[in-house]
Design brief:
This protein has 201 residues and is of the alpha/beta class. It is 51% helix and 11% strand. It has helices at residues 4-24, 30-42, 53-67, 77-80, 107-116, 130-133, 156-176, 180-186, 190-197; strands spanning 46-49, 72-74, 93-97, 119-124, 137-140. The longest helix is centred in the first third of the chain and has 21 residues, at 4-24.
Length: 201
């Protein structure tokens, strides 16, 4: 049996992250969010980049967009400056995720986007950061604290970023009128595919 301290830490993690998501609604800005959704709906292609935990969640976001037929890919910050930004063309959108807004690996990509006429959406806590100031639209990320006792691991911040991406996908679905029948065509696999493609249900 693990210690009572470990069990307490596990229970507290639920409370910390639930509180964070609840508080995030206070920072939801209708105008900024609407502008971000409009850019995503209009973009022929969508790129997403972040480092560490943010990068992992950006990969999830790119997949979410593909699932509603908005062509998207995660662009590794390391590969971005070695040709991967060739994926982006004028009129596309690049999404940057950086809690502090100062991630050095992302800054060269900003310059490329500006030169190519690619719109920028930044998700960050720091609205005065370089990535925020360079963006066309900034979405505020709020994090109360991480779940570990040192407030250092990318836990709650990851959940907060994921929540913003989920909200964006939900809004894009509504804005574009994306239908379950469309998703069924591209997702025939697994239990979801079986349910979507079962005409008797």
């Amino acid at each position: 049996m693990i210690s009572n301290e470990a069990l307490c830490a596990a229970r507290n993690a639920y409370d910390i992250e639930a509180q964070c998501i609840s508080q995030m609604k206070e920072y939801f800005n209708d105008l900024d969010f609407s502008q971000a959704v409009e850019l995503l709906c209009a973009a022929p292609r969508i790129g997403a980049a972040g480092c560490g935990h943010s990068g992992i969640i950006c990969q999830h976001f790119a997949h979410l967009m593909c699932c509603i037929e908005r062509p998207a890919r995660f662009i590794s910050p390391a590969e971005a400056v070695h040709g991967a930004t060739g994926f982006l063309q004028k009129g596309d959108v690049m999404v940057f995720a950086s809690r502090g807004g100062k991630t050095k690996e992302l800054l060269p990509i900003v310059d490329i986007c500006k030169a190519k006429g690619v719109s920028i959406i930044t998700i960050t806590e720091n609205l005065e950061s370089p990535l925020a100031l360079a963006a066309d639209v900034v979405l505020k990320q709020h994090v109360n604290r991480e779940t570990d006792k040192w407030n250092a691991q990318g836990t709650t911040s990851t959940t907060a970023l994921c929540m913003i991406f989920h909200a964006l996908q939900a809004a894009v679905i509504e804005q574009t009128g994306y239908q379950a029948e469309q998703f069924a065509l591209i997702h025939p696999g697994g239990a979801v595919g079986e349910r979507l493609n079962n005409k008797s249900l």
